[in-house]
Amino acid sequence: MDGEALNIVLGGEAGQGLVTLGELLAKTLVRSGYSINVTQDYQNRVRGGHNTFRIRTSPDPVLAPQEPIDLLVALSAQTPDLLGKDMSSQGLILADRALQLQGGSLEVPYSELADSRYVNVAALGVLGGLLGLDHHVALQLVHDNFSRMGAEVIEKNRQALDAGFAWSRGRQTALRRLPPAADRLRRLMLNGNEALVLGALSAGLRFYSFYPMTPSTPIALHLAACAEKMGLVVEQGEDEIAVINMALGASFAGAPAMVGTSGGGFALMVESVSLAGMTETPIVIVVGQRPGPATGLPTRTEQGDLEFVLHSGHGEFPRAIFAPGDVEQCFHLARRALELAEQYQTPVFVLTDLYLADCYQAVPPFALESLAQCGFGAAQPPVSTPYRRYAITEDGISPRLLPGMSEHLVVADSDEHDEAGHLTEDLSIRARMVEKRLRKGQGLARQTMPPEYCGDDRPELLLVSWGSTRGSALEAAATLRAQGVKAATLHFAQVWPLVPEQFAARLENAGQVVSVEGNACGQFARLLRRETGLHIRRHVHRYDGLPITPEFILRELGTQL
Amino acid sequence: MSTPNEVTLEQYGRYPTAWCPGCGNFAILRAVKQALVSSGLAPHQVLFVSGIGQAAKTPHYLNANVFNGLHGRALPVATGAKLANPELVVIVESGDGCSYGEGGNHFLNAIRRNVDLTLIVHDNQVYGLTKGQASPTSLQGFVTKAQPQGVLSPPFNPLAVAVAMHAGFVARGFSGMVDHLVDLIRQAIAHPGLSLVDVFQPCVTFNRVNTMQWYREHTYLLPAAHDPTDWEAAMRLAMQQDRYPLGIIYREERPAFHTQFPTLAQGPLVGRTVDKQALAQLMERYA
User: Fold this and answer.
1) CB–CB of A489/A477 below 8 Å?
2) CB-based contact, B277 to chain A, within 8 Å
């Protein structure tokens, strides 16, 4: 793991401004040229409890969260009690003097530095000074953040920031200073949900429907905020069943459509996943996983719904499932999902989880100009008359017209149907329609993204991961290599369809293969066995609701070695 | 594009059906086609959305755009389609089980939204496709093989619920009065907002209580004096359970759902190109 990285943890009660301060500090770090990985841990309540906002930062790329705490910012008296055991040997606890903690912490007289309304910005100043950050970067951020609130508010915040910096600058503490960043290339601070939103918009998303559910609700909030400007419709449905059916109606009528939910909400959508498969209506479904069964742990993370999503919907029809490994991949895979859904006229999934949905990372700006949009133009492709919506073709993809955009009639049916779209009980047509739909799956498989391999060609140890565990697996492998173990990683950002030719040799060439998954049953390892016959016998599983960290992987490997 | 006077009944076609001889669906199908012709709408301008049930097969027996979806889920599909392309004339056609039972929540919320569509409910007070179980509108005490002691609960009253929620157009027709039904459906299509046309129809196979004769005896035409904008009068009519009024019970002008989305003022969502400048500005906020 990156020895230069600092792990800064803000702890406090819900409603104390923890996230505001955390986001300000994270953005100051990003603008100063540092890499970040932010993990948010919160309880299922609006006030009280104990939440954390963890920023791991370094001049070098940080790919994963870290457990030992270098700087603990205690906003509540219970913070040191809860997290003191996780302090690194050089760790520093920073606390409000007013909390009157018993020794061991650096006490900050916030009430002397700023009025209570501006205390978050004063704390940003204190942290900036301690970390050796550029005062001007923080000042510009404060200016950008509060510019809409008028000159007086900006001025008060500037004073608070200055007071914070002045208090801590040059103060000798046990805390390591952050090494200077190599450059200040412009980057975005995005979390997984935000990257999904930008990616989907860049691909031409026009319709998003949702029912609020953690961790996917912010996708809707971001899209609703820009709906008018970006020309899309965002609608909150009465339930998830309505949500997916609205999206299918919009898609049928020509608006590239997406829905977002989590496991329980997705359970309600499942009948219409099958409907999308049968009517060959494009749709992208974002499932932000959290621990189940049932309501489970609503504000924690897990990778427990792979098998559920893979098998969702009755009957047989093709689908693709993406599982982004980091924030940047959320952007690109949301685009890819919309493209493939339109191309293959079938449901495509983006499987994230609460950790990745909330995880902020520093991401290079996307080259929007070079990105194509997917979906239909108003111009309808030429078709023979009479138009047959489900014309049987070699690749299974039928020319798709939109209702009302020409004099041709578009007929879609959830019953088995003939080429014209009308319900049929002619069983020979039935068999041909099944084959036509499944041929699209072969095309999807030809476009499957190969998994990402990193490390020696003949490793002693191969860590196999999918989705958001990518960074932790990479860092754990790097640590093992530093210790002399020939370790490698294989990461799947697309988990369906799988093409064994792309990776089976990697599994066969490794001394030991270990699957790393945020679930208890090893769902992806089971899927690999089903598709390749290769049995992964060692597992690192986490299912306590927390994200898999590099330390967790190393600990588990240690007990298994 | 056809002009109104060019549309003919022949354009809507004639197809063999899967219905029992004597089924009320035949008359409703005829009325729907005549209403479309008299509205001057060509088949390609119209989208039928239906669910599952004998009534939900109706769109397969005429020429139009069709999305025949899942049981109970026609209204949200229709809502999405209307928002994607408000130029489509959207008609939802399904039975009482699909519209008021499985799709009950969508019924309430489509009325709340006031989606500009026409909801035609074939109301025969029984499940036909699944062979004779009680429906949400079956009368209390109605005996079926699934409800051998008779239906225990009082029937759902769709008109009263719709009027209570200030649905913009609430009407009841009867398959035994086709010309009257044609006029109701024509006015419902013309109404800019959600229009409910609940149509009594006999199920000749599974409902031996609510027969053609029963409907003739238990319905009456609303007098011309009824003012459909009078909410309290409409509520009283909707609550009548001894004899059921036929006609337009309630009308109210409310803005149609799609007119409240600023982006739809620029036309359908179909075929728009990504505004990369706007997207770049959005991305800049995260820098």
Assistant:
1) yes
2) no
Question: Looking at this predicted complex, what is its ipTM?
Answer: 0.97
Count of CB atoms within 10 A of residue A406's CB?
A: 17
Q: Where are the domains of chain B?
A: 4-259
Tell me if A396 sits within 8 A of A439, measured CB to CB: yes
Q: How far apart are CA A353 and CA B63, in angstroms?
A: 45
Going from N- to C-terminal start, the domains of chain A cover 6-185, 189-370, 380-447, 452-560
Cβ-proximal residues to B259 (8 Å cutoff; 6+ apart), any chain:
none
- CATH class of the domain whose range is A189-370: alpha beta
* Distance from C-alpha of B198 to C-alpha of B174, rounded to nearest angstrom: 8
Reported pTM = 0.97
Residue of A411, A417, A418, A425 to mutate, interface with B, max B Cβ within 10 Å: A411
Q: Crossing angle for the helix pair A135-146 and A119-131, nearest 10 degrees?
A: 160
Cα distance from B252 to chain A (closest Cα, Å)? 23
Minimum-distance CB partner of A252 among B43, B81, B108: B81
- In a mutational test of the B interface, the residue from A198, A211, A252, A272 whose CB has the highest number of chain B CBs within 10 Å is A252
Cβ contacts of A371 within 8 Å, gap of 6 or more: A202, A203, A335
Whether residue B199 contacts residue B35, with contact meaning beta carbons closer than 8 Å, is answered with no
Instruction: Note the pLDDT tens digit of each residue in B2-56.
Output: 444 589 999 999 999 999 999 999 999 999 999 999 999 999 999 999 999 999 9
For domain A6-185, say whether CATH 3.40.920.10 is its number. Answer: yes
Residue of A23, A28, A17, A49 whose CA lies nearest to A38: A23
B167's tokens: 């649905």
Superfamily of domain B4-259: Thiamin diphosphate (ThDP)-binding fold, Pyr/PP domains (3.40.50.970)
Separation between Cα atoms, residue A466 and residue A451, nearest integer Å? 9
In A248-345, where do the E strands start and end?
257-261, 283-289, 320-322
Structure confidence at residue A43 (pLDDT)? 79
Length of chain A in residues, anyone? 561
Give the whole-angstrom CA distance, residue B283 versus residue B52.
44
Task: Put the strands of the sheet holding A233-236 in their side by side order.
Answer: A233-236, A207-210, A257-261, A283-289, A347-353, A320-322, A494-496
